[in-house]
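(Structure overview)
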Amino acid sequence: MKVKSKIWLEKNGQTVFGSGRAQLLEAIGKLGSIKEAAAKTGISYRRARSYIKLMEMRLDVPLVYRTIGGEGGGGAELSKQAMELIQNYRALEKGIHNAIDQKFQKIFCE
């Protein structure tokens, strides 16, 4: 047996951030494109844009800076706030998973 958990952040009872949205932002940061990041994470471009819009609205900070296509094509890059959000979320996630694993071992394996 093993224990599984899922962690997400809420604000005023509404989901703001979780593992899937972290993966989306990480992919945008790596690929420089919302469209490519959406494809990589297995969601539609429309859904990716919706997630970004909702996160930005609920957190009241810009997370993704977009440039419109043109000769060189469009692109996207993460804001400083987005990078901090990802880093803080991943640290929280790791800490919680470690605590859960330790508790699981103590209860089920001793």
The mean pLDDT is 94. The helical segments are 19-31, 34-41, 45-59, 80-108.
